[in-house]
Specification:
Layout lengths: L2 E5 L3 H12 L3 E6 L7 H4 L6 H16 L3 E5 L11 H5 L5 E4 L5 E2 L12 E3 H8 L15 E5 L3 H13 L7 E5 L11 H4 L8 H16 L8 H4 L3 H4 L9 E5 L2 E8 L5 E14 L2 E14 L2 E4 L3 E2 L8 E2 L2 E2 L13 E4 L4 E8 L11 H21 L8 H10 L7 H18 L9 H14 L10
Parallel strand pairs: 1-2, 1-4, 2-3, 4-18, 6-13, 7-8, 7-13, 8-9
Antiparallel strand pairs: 5-14, 10-11, 11-12, 15-16, 17-18
Helix pairs in contact: 1-11, 5-6, 13-14
The chain binds flavin-adenine dinucleotide (FAD).
The site of flavin-adenine dinucleotide has 36 residues, from helix 1, strand 2, helix 2, helix 6 and helix 11.
Length: 454
């Protein structure tokens, strides 16, 4: 059976690994983070315990398969100690990239480098305790603008309104390019924060943009039925503080820092709505206004990370453009040579950034794995390096990787720490701390360590 390298241990990579391992292939996973899980561990909202615990258990089952091997704390990239070319030297039969969408979509605004301006992904990684973000400065102030109107915006507003231990926020201003009927969040998620919505300010805002909605055939009466269902479900709700407000049909155009270098003003342009290809688009006008804010978080979706070293184009990683072939969009394509990069595949958010929830990423990983399995059945077998060979090669390069048994030790150390702090669960948020906890457990442990994640 063939050896497949899976790069990235989020839901897409892990479920792809499971499918390939159950087809009796040898699967070797390389993951940037110490722990597996990707955004399921470090993106999903911290208090969604049931979902996180359930996913952790499923991931542990994948890693428990004897023909799945794990090298955590090993980023693969053109500027890393392990590059795609160095992986090729181990002669895998195929490589499946499931690295997610780690790049940041910049707004390209003047002043974007001001303090207090963050990308949503970095901010989410911070409050979910992913190293190194967990120990970086993501301080927020009293007036926070969140750009975007999807579920990630709702998560961030929820954190600032409800769970942020600093409780600094007085007003969260959601800035959206389009109108209230283009809101993209799920009502189930908005239910967590609807009581903060400043109802009076919201009605005023609807009236402010009403003419622009009417111009494209929209009716503000539809808002409580179609997007802000809380207005119909909880008509008597009294708004509580801090305030949650919306600025519809506004696009950020400039950031002005104050004397301390922190964002002090966000200039936004007024937009009009236009009908374009059966959907509603925003068109920027010359008219601008200034919003006084001390923090801005842009939640406008993610993009691929070019530094991984896969062929990269305008849409991110380049895949086979052949429209008639269902496997084409999973195959990496090298535009320089106008051919498929033989045996290299992408799945999950590495294939389509910000596309769907964990279930979609799982399905995509499994579909991609099926294409890989088909590819493997069509090629000549080759002699690949074993997991032990790779472990030796990484050690020789001085790379401190984390194995499956190390993950068990880490889980044990976190349990011990939780116990000593008198809390139910503890999650280390620093790579050096995790590596040293593993070392410490190894040196003191008399219990046998299973090859699985507990
Ligand atoms: C803020 C937020 C909240 C969400 N909440 C929910 C929710 O409540 N419910 C839900 O179902 N879905 C939720 N999702 C969506 C869900 O997290 C994604 O659908 C899913 O995680 C995508 O899986 P993936 O494996 O493609 O990518 P990821 O989960 O991003 O995993 C990528 C993996 O690749 C690794 N990696 C990255 N770069 C490299 C590299 N260079 N070398 C090696 N490894 C690398 C990372 O360490 C990571 O382990 C949320 C997403 C976000 C952003």
């Amino acid at each position: 059976m063939a050896t497949v390298f899976v790069v990235g241990a989020g839901p897409a990579g892990l479920f792809a690994a499971q499918k390939l391992a159950l087809a009796e292939h040898e699967v070797i996973i390389f993951n940037r983070d110490v722990k597996p899980g990707g955004l399921a561990e470090y993106g999903i909202y911290p208090v969604k315990d049931k979902m996180k615990v359930g996913l952790r258990k499923q991931f542990a089952k994948v890693l428990a398969l004897p023909n799945v091997h794990y090298f955590g704390h090993v980023p693969v990239g053109a500027n890393s100690a392990v590059s795609i070319d160095s992986l090729r030297e181990f002669k895998p039969a195929a490589m499946l990239f499931a690295v997610g969408a780690q790049g940041t979509k910049k707004l390209g605004l003047p002043g974007e480098g001001a303090l207090g301006v963050y990308s949503a992904k970095d901010f989410v990684y911070y409050y979910n305790q992913l190293p190194p973000f967990a120990s970086q400065d993501f301080s927020t102030g009293k007036r926070v603008a969140i750009i975007g109107m999807g579920n990630v915006m709702v998560d961030i507003a929820r954190w600032l309104l409800l769970d942020d231990p600093a409780h600094n926020a007085e007003e969260i201003i959601v800035v959206a390019r389009r109108g209230p009927l283009e809101a993209k969040f799920d009502d189930k998620e908005f239910e967590h924060i609807h009581m903060y919505l400043d109802r009076k300010a919201f009605q005023d805002e609807l009236l402010r943009v009403q003419d622009r909605m009417t111009a494209v055939g929209q009716d503000i009466a539809k808002v409580p039925e179609e997007t802000f269902l809380c207005l119909a479900k909880h008509p008597e709700q009294q708004s509580i503080g801090p305030r949650l407000t919306f600025r519809f049909m506004n696009s950020p155009v400039a950031i002005t820092p104050g004397p301390d270098g922190r964002i002090a003003r966000l200039t936004v342009a007024e937009n009009i709505l236009v009908n374009r290809n059966d959907s509603i688009a925003a068109k920027v006008t010359e008219q601008t206004i200034d919003l006084e804010v001390d923090t801005m978080i842009f939640a406008i979706g993610d993009m691929h990370d070019a530094s991984v070293g896969l062929p990269f184009g305008k849409e991110g990683y380049v895949t086979n453009p052949e429209p008639a072939d269902p496997k084409a969009s999973y195959e990496v394509f090298d535009p320089a040579f106008r051919r498929v990069s033989e045996g290299i595949f992408v799945v999950g958010w590495a294939r389509k950034p910000s596309e769907g929830l964990v279930g979609i990423a799982r399905h995509d990983g499994e579909v991609g794995a099926a294409h890989v399995a088909q590819y493997l059945s069509d090629i000549q077998p080759r002699q690949s390096a074993s997991a032990d060979d790779i472990a030796r090669a990484l050690k020789a390069k001085g790379i401190q990787f984390v194995s499956k048994s190390d993950l068990s030790l880490l889980a044990r150390a976190e349990e011990r720490e939780a116990h000593s702090r008198g809390v139910a669960y503890c999650k280390f948020s620093d790579d050096a701390v995790m590596l040293s906890a593993i070392k410490q457990e190894k040196s003191t442990s008399t219990e046998p360590v299973s090859e699985t994640v507990s």
